[in-house]
Amino acid sequence: EMFGQLSSGLEAAWTKLKGEEVLTKENIAEPMRDIRRALLEADVSLPVVRRFVQTVSDQAVGMGVIRGVKPDQQLVKIVHDELVKLMGGEVSELQFSKSGPTVILLAGLQGVGKTTVCAKLACYLKKQGKSCMLIAGDVYRPAAIDQLVILGEQVSVPVYTAGTDVKPADIAKQGLKEAKKNNIDVVIMDTAGRLQIDKGMMDELKDVKKVLNPTEVLLVVDAMTGQEAAALVTTFNVEIGITGAILTKLDGDSRGGAALSVKEVSGKPIKLVGRGERMEDLEPFYPNRMAGRILGMGDVLSFVEKAQEVMRQEDAEDLQKKIMSAKFDFNDFLKQTRAVAKMGSMTRVLGMIPGMGKVSPAQIREAEKSLIIMEAMIEAMTPEEREKPELLAESPERRKRIAKDSGKTEQQVSQLVAQIFQMRVKMKNLMGVMEGGSIPALSD
Ligand code: GDP
């Protein structure tokens, strides 16, 4: 299982917070040690681990309480967001040339999967409607050229070859000419890999790069090599200048160090990942999904996100006071129902928590429809009426006017007025439960 060890290492951190009320400097000390250990065991480089742990601790201590969210859930969310940042945040898309063919130059050590990536990349781009051509530039291994030709046939993409007696820079020049003649959208050049970095390889790459003026120079690295991959990306970037990396063999039992370190160490993003030997097994690198996969807690993450969103939308403290003193009025009602509608109903959020019931889409649509009706009636109220629902309870004339102005029936207005008094009672009870720390179901 990819990242399996890292995932379970991090899990140890959350369990230590079970039963805590709030994140403090003291109670996160041990979980932070777990996180540190898990990252180091995943072969993330030490300076990266140090910075990561520091950032997470600072945030955790400064976070305060989010109603309904437990400290261990909070920490999961913080770690998740920092993992995403560590991996570069957004997806880093391949760039395409606006004039003439896009040229992608691939570099990498021997055995990392570079030749395979050439064909996979062509397969991937063909699906986006782009015509591709491969150039075989590994002049030191005739077998590599044969392999590229075979893979090219497999994905139905032409392969330009010039044997092993021509210099790679010349092959590049001829291949590019051929591609332009055939109106090819994307040219992908394979280059020779060595067992280790040496000057000959770098010089050759520089020559090829000069000739091709590529849009992308991508270093193919093997995920199994851990933080070594990040160091390689740095070296290649300093030597020849690259635009990003492709991480292969992520399907193996890679420990995660490469995926987590490359961007932070080298400043260059991972653009694509290979996760299998089939031609289809190449995909963009999504930091978000990767972090989610490492933590394996998608439900907790979206729950905390929604809760934070609601917190931002209303000043919870203020609302609570109003409810406790039974001053909850139509303005609050509107704010509250809108906030709830926006997050796709409170109940749906609660449904994400294991053990809580789910709400059907039909129920949500129904709730949204009645919200629109209620809004129309509240908008027809005077500011005074909104603040003092009692005025409406006492005066049939006022209710009549609102019905007329909002285009609803008097009965609907009466119902709404009754509802706010019911809600005052309900919310008061609800607050009591929330104070107690558990999450109530709002579905009824
Ligand atoms: P090159 O020397 O860098 O050109 O490496 P190759 O493309 O010849 O690949 C070396 C070996 O790694 C081959 O057996 C590939 O099938 C295998 N390989 C490449 N990419 C992946 C991957 O993403 N996952 C797995 N499991 N194997 C891969």
TrEMBL record:
Region annotation Disordered: where it falls in the sequence: 383-409
Gene Ontology cellular component list: signal recognition particle, endoplasmic reticulum targeting
Keyword Kinase: no
Positions of the SRP54-type proteins GTP-binding domain: 269-282
GO molecular function terms noted in the UniProt entry: 7S RNA binding; GTP binding; GTPase activity
Domain of life according to the entry: Eukaryota
Catalytic activity: GTP + H2O = GDP + phosphate + H(+)
Top-level EC class: hydrolase
Biased composition (Basic and acidic residues): 383-408
UniProt keywords, alphabetically: GTP-binding, Hydrolase, Nucleotide-binding, Ribonucleoprotein, RNA-binding, Signal recognition particle
Record bears the keyword Ribosomal protein: no
This enzyme's EC code(s): 3.6.5.4
GO BP, sorted A to Z: SRP-dependent cotranslational protein targeting to membrane
Membership in a protein family: Belongs to the GTP-binding SRP family. SRP54 subfamily.
Protein name, UniProt field: signal-recognition-particle GTPase
Organism (species): Eutrema salsugineum
